Amino acid sequence: MIRDAELLNALTDNIARFVRERLIPNENLVAETDAIPPELVSEMKALGLFGLCIPEAYGGLGLTMEEEVRVAFELGMTSPAFRSMFGTNNGIGSQGIIMDGTPEQKAHYLPKLAAGEMVASFALTEPGSGSDAASLVTSAVRDGDHYVLNGTKRYITNAPEAGIYTVMARTDPAKKGAGAISAFIVERGTPGLSLGKVDKKMGQKGAHTCDVIFDNCRVPAKNLIGGVEGVGFKTAMKVLDKGRLHIAAVCVGAAQRMLNDALRYAMERKQFGQPIAEFQLVQAMLADSKTELYAARCMVLDAAQRRDAGENVNTEASCAKLFASEMCGRVADRCVQIHGGAGYVSDYAIERFYRDVRLFRIYEGTSQIQQLVIARNMIREAAGQ
Ligand code: COS
User: Does residue 99's CB lie within 6 angstroms of at least one atom of ligand 1?
Assistant: First the structure.
């Protein structure tokens, strides 16, 4: 759903210009230094990028899902590390509070997140619990008006920068499964919370992950999201439904960027006396990429519109994430191929993008988890459940 086409066009044009004029020229610097220059972060704040999906009542832009994916198409056109900087504030770090938080929690945290004064992280994954999220073992035991958290969270995006962590922990450690999991807001600096060393990743330099460790970390009971125990897993799943659609849109943007670069290269690079874009085997790679990209874009928009219309898009979000992230991987591979030797060296952005986009098939649910969600829903539906 687009609320005001003119306003949305102005926003996407503004973001596209920022991407073109400020972010793309700084991609190499970010990759080399593994850091986003502070002046760019300030510009992101001024543009409202930290609050795109936070309700207007709390200082954000309150984008609808369709508006959000259209913005994500633009943001995907540059290094994913830039989007990651404010991605958790709009997505997995804040949505648990937006969807299920108490009015006090919303009023306390969301304005700071929308302004970019504070970064939010989502802490679900653990050393022993990745795809099987419901098997997590971090515990949160009630002690008076606090919960005492113990456990380790792994690969937590923006953890080194975060001011708050939305943490899924087991409030009934003796009970297995999803029903005993609760969600908490844990503030940076809480005694007993510490961070591991920053992970050395394959790509997405400038976006940081690390372990978040809880050692008898005392969290005020008022920080239990929604004030209700045992619904934290559902909160996490709802957050991921939305997040998966967002990532699918970012994949569309990234594939578009890679294809633009490859097309330009193919039209400039001459072999056998003519631009390689004139060769049909190169054209096949361009055309297959364009076709798949178009399909992914249509899927993302359709799922977003359905979500805005109030439909349950659990299946469609997984379909979009599965197809768009796999498509993005195939496009990356073809675009390296079109660049030939030049695609394997870092003079061209495609070498970096090839590594950066690999993560899309893994985080916010692997392709295999998306397949599992889709098929399980199909079987349930057919069985009339
Ligand atoms: N929205 C709302 N509720 C949901 C839901 C959703 N999308 N998905 C599941 N639930 C609910 C279920 O309805 C169920 O509730 P009841 O017990 O009341 O029926 C509960 O949550 C448990 O769900 P389920 O039985 O489906 O859990 P499973 O352990 O079988 O696991 C998968 C479900 C595999 C889908 C889940 O663990 C998953 O998404 N894993 C991947 C995790 C991930 O994406 N990690 C990335 C890290 S974050 S970057």
Answer: no
